[in-house]
Structures are given as C-alpha cells and as structure tokens.
Write a structure and sequence with these properties.
single chain; about 350 residues; Aspartate Aminotransferase, domain 2; 4-stranded antiparallel beta sheet; 13 strands; globular
C-alpha cells in the first residue's frame, strides 16, 4: 500500500503553489519573486537562543504598531503574510462547510491555503480592468466566510478602487471577513486601508517585511485588525512563530533608521520602474506595459516573441503569468537594479523581430 493513500484526499489532489524557488532556473538576474535586488546589512544582537522566544515579540509589535498607526493590540506578527492567510482560514472557516472567495488573476496562495484545509474556493473573475466585479461577488456569497483582496494586486500591479472596497466591506459585514493583502503597500502608502479599521470590524489588513523592507528571507509578516480578530488568531497561531533572530532583525528594520532606509529603497525602485516601463514600451516584442503601483511590471508580449524562454536561457529569470485568466502572453518583471533592468532591455532588443 502506498503511503500516499493515507494522506487526506484534499492533499493528494492539491497542486502546490509554484514559488519562484520551486520553479528554479539558473542565472544572475533574478526578477521573478518581487524581491529587493540587494541585501540589507544587519547584525544579530539577541544571544538568548537557549530560551524559547516570545509568542508575540513586544518590541516588534510596538514598532510595527507605531509604523502602521495602530495600537499594539491590533497587531499580530507571523511567519510571513502567508501564515496570516492560513490563520484566517483556520480561525473563520469550517472545512466542508464554509468557503473563501477571491478574484483571479491574483496571488495563488489564497487557493492553496484554502484547499490545504479542505475549505471550498469560490472564485469570481476580476473585470477586464482587474477591478472587482461586485455584482458577481454578491451573487456568490453563500457560505463565504472570508474574502481575500490583493491591493496592489499581484501580479497585475493595480490598486482596487476604494469605493468598491467600501461597498464590499459593507455588504458582507456580519457575514464574512475581508482580508486586504497589502504586501506592496509601501510603494503606494496613501492607498492603505489601515485607517478604516475603526469603521469596519470585519476588515483585516495583511502586511510583510519581504518587499520594501528587503527581508524576504526573514519570513516576517503582520496582521492588522481589530482586537477581537487578533484575539481569535492568537488562539490558532503556533506557540513560537518567530525565531529569536527573526524578531531581532525585524525590530532593527522597524527602527527609525530602518524605516528611513526602506523609504529610500522605495524611491529607488519607483525611479527604476518608471525607466523600465518607458524602455519596455519601445521594445518591438512588447505589446503592452501595464501601469503598476508595486515593485514589478506586468508586460504583455507579442505571441511570437518567446521572450520568457529566450531570457531564461540568458540567465534572466522572469515570472510567466500565462496560466492566469486574462494574462495570456504576460510576464511579470520585478524591478531590479538599473543594471539588471538594462540587461532585460538589451536582451529583449536582441529578440528576432517577427
């Protein structure tokens, strides 16, 4: 008998999330995971590795609360925002009974996490401009307990209209949690919904240190919500979610100097994004470059360009999005250093002109 037959049916049938590292590749220009291109420098200061860490490190919580403009009681820290996604499902969804809803094209971990826990995935395709189809969402809310909305959306880079978000929050108040994934909000901080928490008890905001804080390898994320929600999540989170070195570095990154450094990185990335967008628009193999409020660009290439494969062979690793609905012939390009962006343009200009 195969051991696989002992596994849960949902796990046997699960298609795992294809992270950038799982997809692999060999190269020296990695623009497929929306990481910051160079590593920040930190030194460990905590030497208490013989002791278990705090479940919710007080200094990390206090500093993130101050940064986000909320109270410490409204903050939960976890192993990346991916753990936040799972905690919400564990806390609010009954397997085999409830459903989560999200609107492709969007981040793939919403589906993987729900399927892992045996919770139904309800999908409502975004409209052609990648905004929410509120009428279709409202028609599909039966048994929905949790709705994920990514804004800026990954992989399209657009913000969701705030009026639509207000309408959604109001329409499901008392029925479902609305989790707004703000992984990329540092690139457009004016669009954050954190200030809405006082008005909407069913609002949850997901954040991370992986993007603008340049700490993807740290695996540190945050859930911002009203205290009642945070208390429920504390019931289902692991006893020691953050290792002591992770909490140490996270606290340093959230210091005044750390936040200043983050904002300098954001400015640099936005400058490079503008340059890359202008250059891509002039490439003969490019059909369309979509506007972005994040640290990546979604680009539609001409069908005959074979851009992904050609750049892969040259060690320039991008993210292919063609399997997402409405994203045929689209690649997502992380904004790297100016030299890396130049490598992309140079490689694309060498492609045959069909």
């Amino acid at each position: 008998m195969s051991i696989e037959t002992l596994a849960r049916k949902a796990v046997r049938e699960l298609t795992p999330y294809q992270s950038a590292r799982r997809l692999g590749g060999n190269g020296d220009v990695w623009l497929n995971a929306n990481e910051y291109p160079t590593a920040p420098q930190f030194e460990l200061t905590a030497q208490t590795l013989n002791r278990y860490p705090e479940c919710q490190p007080a200094q990390v919580i206090a500093r993130y609360a101050a940064y986000a403009g909320v109270s410490p009681q409204q903050v939960l820290v976890s192993r990346g925002a991916d753990e936040s996604i799972e905690l919400l499902i564990r806390a609010f969804c009954e397997p085999g009974k409830d459903a989560v809803l999200f609107c492709p094209p969007t981040y793939g971990m919403y589906q993987v996490s729900a399927e892992t826990f045996g919770v139904e995935c309800r999908t409502v395709l975004a409209k052609t401009d990648w905004q929410l189809d509120l009428a279709a969402i409202n028609a599909n809310l039966t048994n929905v307990r949790l709705i994920y909305v990514c804004s800026p959306n990954n992989p399209t880079g657009n913000l969701i209209h705030p009026d639509d978000l207000r309408s959604l929050l109001a329409s499901v108040n008392g029925q479902a949690i609305v989790a707004i994934d703000e992984a990329y909000i540092e690139f457009c901080p004016q669009a954050s919904l954190v200030n809405w928490l006082a008005d909407y008890p069913n609002l949850v905001v997901l954040r991370t240190l992986s993007k603008a804080f340049a700490l993807a390898g740290l695996r540190c994320g945050f859930t911002l919500a009203n205290q009642e929600v945070i208390n429920l999540l504390l019931k289902v989170i692991a006893p020691y979610p953050l290792a002591t070195p992770v909490a140490d570095i996270a606290a340093q990154a959230l210091s005044p100097s750390g936040i200043d450094a983050m904002r300098q990185r954001v400015s640099e990335i936005i400058t490079n994004r503008t340059w890359l967008q202008q250059q891509l628009a002039q490439c003969h193999c490019v059909e369309q470059v979509f506007a972005s409020e994040s640290n990546y660009l979604l680009v539609r290439f001409k069908p005959s360009s074979q851009a992904f494969a050609q750049l892969w062979q040259q060690g320039i690793i991008l993210r292919d999005q063609h399997k997402q609905p409405g994203l045929q012939h689209c690649l997502r390009i992380t904004i790297g250093t100016r030299a890396e962006c130049q490598r992309v343009i140079d490689a694309l200009n060498l492609l045959p002109n069909a």
